[in-house]
Amino acid sequence: MLFDWGDTLFHAPHAPEVISSYAAERGVKVTDAEARGLWDELWAAGKTPEEIAKGRDLSPDAHRRVWTALFARADRVAPGLSRALYERVMDPNSWVPFADTPRVLRALRERGLRIGVVSNVPAVLRPVFAKHGLERFVDSFTHSFEVGAEKPDPAIFLAAARSLRLRPEEILMVGDHAVDAGAERAGMRVFILPERFEDDVRGLDQVVGMTE
Ligand SMILES: [Mg+2]
User: What is the distance in A from the centroid of ligand 1 to the CA of 165?
Assistant: First the structure.
């Protein structure tokens, strides 16, 4: 089984808090609802085809340039907020697993499945999983910046299949976004998680049922 990383296994629930605390340090009052609204707006903008087409996950430099430009609209709230958001939220080390991530990875491992993570990301993810004791459940990590291709390009999914020593038709790709469906063109089956979920439970349990 292959998993996307961002918004599938891990998320950044601290982002609105970064906005309100940064603003407060500069004497600007931002309510929790306003911070949440601003973050949701920025994050949704970052998931549009136009932004994804900018190649931001092919190198750390491109990542910083593209995301900082997108976050610039946050500077209207407090000057410098765009940079704070980039440094405190876009660092993968600041992301945390969803509540159901550990138990689902463990359940899949107990069933003898090989597990890979395939991500559009400019950094190595194994230490991020290790920080939460989850690296033992993952056989391989495939990062866009190392492969030189980003999802939905089939090339990155095929690289992930090779790293697991599996044929594409033996793999289920689990993700949260249309880019993850690119795995179909690589010959894999795909499951896209519902956009909505309760609190910090992503709804990954249903993936375990799919292995029956
Ligand atoms: Mg994702």
Answer: 23
- CB neighbours of residue 154 within 10 Å: 18
CA of 175 to the centre of ligand 1 (A): 6
Measure 176 CA to ligand 1 centroid, in angstroms. Answer: 5
Tens of pLDDT, residue by residue over 106-145, are: 999 999 999 999 999 999 999 999 999 999 999 999 999 9
Q: Contact, 85 vs 18, CB < 8 A?
A: yes
Distance 24 CA to ligand 1 centre (A): 30
What distance in angstroms lies between residue 194's CA and the mean position of ligand 1's atoms?
12
Q: Give me ligand 1 centre to Cα 84, in Å.
A: 22
CA–centroid distance, residue 178 to ligand 1 (Å): 9
Rounded Cα–Cα distance for residues 207 and 212 (Å): 10
Taking the centre of ligand 1 as the mean of its atom positions, its distance from the CA of residue 35, in whole angstroms, is 22
Taking only Cα atoms into account, the Rg of the chain, rounded to an integer number of angstroms, comes to: 17
135, 129 contact by CB (below 8 A): yes
Enter the pTM of the model.
Answer: 0.95
User: 2-8+95-209 adopts what CATH topology?
Assistant: Rossmann fold (3.40.50)
Q: Enumerate the domain spans of the chain.
A: 2-8+95-209, 12-94
Contact (CB, 8 A) for 210 and 3 = no
